[in-house]
Specification:
The chain is an alpha+beta fold. The chain has one domain (2-179): Aminopeptidase (3-Layer(aba) Sandwich). It is 26% helix and 33% strand. It has four helices and eight strands; from the N terminus they run ββααβββαβαββ. The chain has helices spanning 21-29, 50-65, 113-127, 143-151; strands at residues 6-7, 11-14, 69-76, 81-91, 97-104, 133-138, 155-166, 169-179. It has an eight-stranded mixed sheet with strand order 1-2-3-4-5-6-8-7, sandwiched between helices. The longest helix has 16 residues, at 50-65. It starts with 5 loop residues before the first strand and ends in a 7-residue tail after the last strand.
């Protein structure tokens, strides 16, 4: 997992380790009240003690080792936890297909962190994780995430009706996708 430490001008992107507990906690605990329907806002952090966090880190490592989901924390160069990114494996074999997900804590919005972090992760998806094709599944009402996907070079592919069960009902998702590389893996 250490080989997947990514650095940009302002960010460090890597899997969580137990020593991240304090800064991880502060990132979540410092969230502002929800800004819109796609923002979880402030969360109840009372169950998130060190033991709980150690189990979270172990679960992330287990998912990584199974080639199920690759979960990355986003930190600024001062060590502040800004959010999380993930790539879920949808299919390997002849497809090398993954799903991209992300969130940035709302106190760090509008500073370009999501774009910077995701740009770096998309490059790593091909070179290190071996994904050929990525997609992102976005609520049709979440125009900001759709615009971010487009800025990252993802292309609108389709609308999947009643695709995801959220908030007690089946909802649609719009799918944006990106082919990462035309050449086969070495």
């Amino acid at each position: 997992m250490e080989k997947c430490k990514i650095e940009t001008d302002r960010l460090i992107i890597r899997p969580l380790v137990t020593e991240d507990y304090e800064t991880w906690y502060q990132g979540f605990d410092g969230r502002k009240v929800a800004q819109h329907a796609f923002d979880d806002g402030q969360l109840d952090m009372s169950v998130c003690d060190l033991k709980w966090f150690q189990q979270l880190v172990a679960r992330h490592q287990e998912l990584w080792e199974k080639d199920d989901t690759y979960i990355f924390a986003v930190f600024d160069k001062n060590g502040q936890h800004l959010g999380m990114l993930n790539i879920a494996t949808l299919a390997r074999t002849n497809m090398q297909w993954g799903e991209l997900g992300y969130f940035i804590h709302n106190q760090y919005w509008r500073k370009g962190f999501a774009y910077e972090a995701l740009s770096a992760l998309v490059e790593t998806c091909w070179k290190v994780l071996g994904f050929h094709h990525l997609e992102t599944q976005i609520s049709p009402r979440n125009r900001a995430s759709q615009q971010l996907a487009e800025k990252l070079g993802f292309v609108y592919e389709c609308r999947r009706s009643k695709f995801a069960f959220e908030d007690g009902e089946w909802g649609d998702k719009v799918i944006y996708s990106k082919t990462l590389h035309e050449q086969p893996l070495d």
